Amino acid sequence: MRRPMTLTMLVGLVALAAFATTGAAQPAGPGGGGFGGLRLGMGAPSLTDRAGHLETNPESRALWERLGDLQRRLRDQQWELFELQNAERPSREAIADRSTEIRELNEEMRQMNFAVDDKGKTAREVAYEFLVKKGLVVPREMGKRVTAKDPFLIYFWAQRYHVLKLLKEHLYLTLVALTLAVIVSIPAGIALTRFEKIRGLVFTVINTFQTIPSLALLGFLVPVLGIGRLPAIVALFLYALLPLVRNTYTGIREIDPKIIEASQGIGLTNLQILRKVEMPIALPMIIAGIRTSTVIIVGTATLAALIGAGGLGDPIFRGISSVQMNTILLGAAPAALLAIFLDKLLHFCERRLVSKGLRIGK
pLDDT digit string (tens) for 90-99? Predict the structure, then answer.
């Protein structure tokens, strides 16, 4: 009967899975936390998702095949261990040996955690070093690694693909929340100009949403909507309502009543007055509300990382927890640039959409 698989082989299997998943030829992303508790795989695609990469990467394919062999051996050894445990009670010597082995492996895991959290190594590098130490892979040159302690531009360039992924997530949250807010707020602002009696109640409710702290609002939504993008989009939508509804209402109400009377005098209907007179005149104020809401959403969306919605808040909070300024800037700088870019883009759209006469009169 073969000897049951040791815990060293089991830990090697876990490390091999993490190393194969991250890809030997792939640039190392941010550590994403410590090595312990299998945190080395955070942000990495699953083995199934990497199937296409494994077919074209001989080294990863070899690791995959070795992983499958270890999995089969593990199942066999677990069955044999089950039979041994049911056949006879283990001796004190066997228990002592296993306890010693567990303590040694715990110390190894502690050292690997320390290497990721304090020495700036990536989870892929730590997994690779462990596999080399156990003789499960052939050593190779890893090259110079870039950490958060390097100059920011070098660190940013090394993490550019990860930042691009986070930027896409952040932009998705921003655009979806802003689009929903515009669809709801502009008709609501128009309706308030026609139904003045409910104006006070509506603005009170919207102002209440604006005064709730961001973290508290997310905390209220998570038990109802769960974690992920949905509660983040709802929270951003609620924060964008006030500037849009208020500016739409104010822009229409501040139109000179003589202009409305003149429009009625030439026989325009209420709908025609709204479409051809009120909305064009109020458009600069409405776009100003959209610009304000956009900046609010981009800044608040960084908190979405706390509930698993992704975005540029992820490196910000990792940098805060590890006291790494470069990691904070990895999320803060793109978020600030995104807000400035969207604001300038909307300003350009305003100059294209608003009539020349209204621009001169401002």
Answer: 566 665 666 6
Sign of the four-CA dihedral 239, 242, 336, 27: positive
Q: What is the DSSP string of 169-230?
A: HHHHHHHHHHHHHHHHHHHHHHHHHH-GGGHHHHHHHHHHHHHS-HHHHHHHHHHHH-SSHH
Answer yes or no: do 138 and 165 share one domain.
Answer: no
Q: Is the pLDDT reported for residue 34 higher than 90?
A: no
Give the model's pLDDT for residue 257: 86
By the 8 A CB rule, do 280 and 199 touch?
Answer: no
SS3 34: coil
Which residue type, as a one-letter code, is found at position 288?
Answer: A
pLDDT of residue 358: 66
The total number of residues written for the chain in this structure? 362
Residues 81 and 183 in one domain: no
SS3 59: helix
Asked whether residue 42 falls in the same domain as residue 137, the answer is yes
**117 is in which domain, residue-wise?**
7-145
333 and 195, same structural domain? yes
CA proximity to 38, closest of 55, 59, 21, 24? 21
Domain limit, last residue, from 145, 172, 201: 145
- On whether both 232 and 293 belong to a single domain, the answer is yes
pTM (2 d.p.) = 0.60
For residue 131, give both structure tokens.
């596999």
**Cβ(223)–Cβ(209) under 8 Å?**
no
* Residue 70 resides in a domain: yes
Q: How many domains does the chain have?
A: 2
For 324-360, b/e burial (b = at least 16 CB within 10 A) is bebbbbbbbbbbeebbeebbeebeeebeeebeeeeee
**Which helix (H) or strand (E) is 265 found in, with range?**
helix 257-265
Q: What is the CATH number of the domain that holds 208?
A: 1.10.3720.10
345 and 200, same domain (yes or no)? yes
Judge if 166 and 76 occupy the same domain: no
Q: What is the mean pLDDT of residues 145-158?
A: 81
